[in-house]
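Entry 12.
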Amino acid sequence: MGPLVRACLYPLLPPGEGWSNSRLDWKQMQELVAGILRAMGYRTVVSQPGADRGVDIFASPDGLGLQDPRIFVEVKHRTGSAMSSKEIRAFLGGRKPGDKCLYVSTGGFTKDAHYEADRASVPVTLLTLSTLRKLLIDHYDALDGETRALVPLKRFYWPVV
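Predicted 3D structure (C-alpha cells):
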C-alpha cells in the first residue's frame, strides 16, 4: 500500500506571481547555491564582489580545504545566455588534480560546453536552473534561515486518491 498523503513545497509569493530565477540578483543566486551546499553538509566561503579568479564559492567538509572534496564553484546568473566551452575552459584553467568543480548557469550550457566538461581532466559538474531547483527542494528542510528567506517555500499536503 502506497502513501496516503503526498507533500509538496510551494513558493510563498504574492498571488499571480510565480518563482523564477529572475527574482534573485547575481549575489543572491550565489548565496542560494552556497546555502544549498551547506544544507548538503559542506562549509562554504563566498567570494567578495570583484575579481574572484573564477571561483564564486569554495566548499569543503571543513571549510578550509584541508579535507576532500575541495569544491570550486562558479555561478553565472544570466537568463537566456548559455555558457560555452570557452567559459568552461577558463574556469578549469587554474584547477589541480584532486579538485572538484561545479559550474552553475541559470542560462544553461551549449553542446560544446558539455563536451568540454566531459573531457576535462578535473571533474566538473554542469548545473542548470532545473537541477538547482531540484536540489533546493530536496534539501530545503536543511537550509539555514538566510537561505530560506531568498526562496521562501511552504510545505503542504494532499490526500493520494
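Annotation: Residues 12-19 have pLDDT under 50 and may be disordered. The first strand starts at residue 5 and ends at 11.
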